[in-house]
Amino acid sequence: MAELDTSSSGGKKGPGVKKSKKLSTRVDLTPMVDLGFLLITFFIFTTTMSQPTSMRLFLPKDTEKPEEQNKVKESGALTIMLGKDNAIYYYEGTLLPDGSNFKTTNFKEIRDIIINKKKSTNPEDFVVVIKPSPESTYKNTVDMLDEMTISEIKRYALVDLFDIELQLIRATEGGGPMPGQPAANP
Amino acid sequence: MARAKLPRKSTTVDMTAMCDVAFLLLTFFILTTKFKPDEALTVTTPKSVSTNPAEQKDVVLITMDKEGLVYFSVSDDAMAEKETIINEVDQMKNLGLTEEEKKAFRRSGSYVGVPFSQLKSYLQKSPKDIPSLQVPGIPVKDTLNNELQVWIRAAVGAFQGGKMNIMLKGDNEAKYESFKGVLTALKRNEQLKFQLITDPEGVPAGTELYKTINAPRTAQ
Known about the structure:
A: 4 helices; 16% strand; B: 5 strands
């Protein structure tokens, strides 16, 4: 359709008869197609197909009254601390005085740790405590909250670090070793 | 029609069909496209598996940028509320804002990123200068002087009776300290439900959420 009629019927008419060139009404559409695709490319690149989503966050009310506070069974708790440079520290249950159950991990492995803890704990007692340190980023916190959604953990809390935990993190990071102790894990 | 000679085959292809397709797609993209809004603050939000679309109306937006500076803005559809908020803040803090300065707050796409002490001069700036301005952000880190709390209180008062969507848009690199300051400001106003703006992300395969999402389909 879009090509010029090349197989013109020549030679059918007798000699002397001037060939009147039949003008084709068809136009070459190739440039138009080019233009079309150019514009498509432009619109594909400028369009925002992905609408931003939102993550709902419900905070608990700060309460001073002990009877209103949720009690957490210590053995069922998994405390995850977020350090600087995407580092994660965690311990299960309570932190031992010598800090021997204080472990280091990263964002790739934390999911398995959460799932293992979830499987090995009574669902009623299981709670994840997220403690972002001042050096951790907003992304770390959101990723961690997202991790709770991914692993379907119903009970989790966003809590501030205790001083002792902050000191342990600092010591592990090697930034500021605790006085009287050599910096662990240089 | 039967010809003795085989017609010479042309190498050119019929472009009409392709042209049709191209323009069909073009029409689709033109109609569905929504240009990226020109944002004065560049914020790269973290990703999450959440699929709830972010609210567009009656939004009270708290933005945290890369340095952890906090900004406050209200969506343009809530003009009356915007006016109430700035009047309220003016009264509560005795800023003595003029009508002109209040108008600057009501302007479309305006945001505030300064402490109250600088608000008056900030609102006198022309809109063109604001994006290039070095602003200190709304103070949130100091627990005694969390100014965002005042802004939120004014917003809560303004949106009374209506629905208010508090959204928090934070940059990946913002430090937790700022986030905590924002949380404190919200908590003190008893605004315990709010939304974090994120970019969509696929659910990782094999996880529990993945199983839950795909369970009804496989069961059928």
